[in-house]
TrEMBL record:
GO molecular function: cadmium ion sensor activity; DNA binding; DNA-binding transcription factor activity; lead ion binding
Name recorded for this polypeptide: Transcriptional regulator
Pfam families xref list: HTH_5
BP terms from Gene Ontology: response to cadmium ion; response to lead ion
Amino acid sequence: MLELAADIDVLARFGRALAEPLRCRILLALRRAPAYPAELAEALGVSRTRLSNHLACLRDCGLVVTVPDGRRTRYELADARLGHALDDLRAAVVAVESGRTCPDAEEKGCC
């Protein structure tokens, strides 16, 4: 039963990360290539402060890591398999029902 609890925790962390659209955009951007925060903020059209908060969340969830590069810090996915997982999850959801939305998502706190 302990393994099941650990599996649930891992999936819940991934779900929390994907629950925020900006974090999804960050993960998708990092799936393409590692990036520096300033460049990532500009590419995503968000403030560095807002990006920093979401990068911290993704780091705390264990989904991204920092890589020192001289005086700069680069961000990348913690494991290449995360990029494949994002691709597979997106493809699976689209294959199941691409036109579906989550009704009352804001009211129910889902999706």
